[in-house]
Amino acid sequence: MKSGLPIPKKNFLMDWKQFYGKETLENFPAYLDLIRMKRVAPLFKNKKFKDILEMDSQELKNLGVELARDRLKLIKNF
């Protein structure tokens, strides 16, 4: 018997809203884990989800997300 969140299809990054509810969005580290970005979760401690959604590449870099591919992935999935 499986437990936890459903495993989405290949293109889940574009359709995450249909799989995960408000609870997941309020728990940003869990959301990062879903998109395989858990390693940057500590950087977003004390940040509100709404503020995170409005971040651009430079703001993410200033926050400590060093790799350009990680910033691009985050922006793409916001």
UniProtKB/TrEMBL annotation:
This is 40018_t:CDS:1. InterPro entries: SAM (IPR001660), SAM/pointed_sf (IPR013761). SUPFAM superfamilies: SAM/Pointed domain. It holds the Pfam family SAM_2. Residues 24-78 form the SAM domain. The lineage of its organism: Eukaryota, Fungi, Fungi incertae sedis, Mucoromycota, Glomeromycotina.
